[in-house]
Write a sequence for this structure.
């Protein structure tokens, strides 16, 4: 027979189905399952009884480099439309009354 382990179920969980087999939780929410399903159950939020650390990942975590400081973006000032000229002609026509 395969080894088994006990896992604390999520609140409100009464049973789980693994590999076509149903496993019932006791009144304290503990479910005894085949050990081969530990990683699957842990990824769903179940906690292995008797262990207080998560399983080690296959690869160590890669540290993320610190971000470069962001420079403040200052919008360019808009040119004065009265001062803009094209070949000596004002960009805006003066209003006529």
């Amino acid at each position: 027979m395969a080894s088994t382990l006990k896992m604390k179920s999520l609140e409100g969980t009464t049973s789980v189905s693994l590999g076509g087999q149903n496993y019932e939780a006791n009144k304290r929410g503990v479910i005894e399952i085949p050990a081969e399903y530990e990683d699957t159950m842990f990824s769903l939020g179940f906690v292995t009884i008797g262990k207080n650390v998560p399983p080690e990942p296959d690869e160590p975590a890669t540290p993320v480099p610190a971000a470069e400081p962001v420079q403040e973006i200052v919008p360019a000032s808009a040119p004065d439309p009265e001062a803009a000229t094209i070949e000596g002609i004002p960009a805006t026509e003066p209003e006529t009354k």
The first helix runs from residue 38 to 43. Residues 4-48 form one domain.
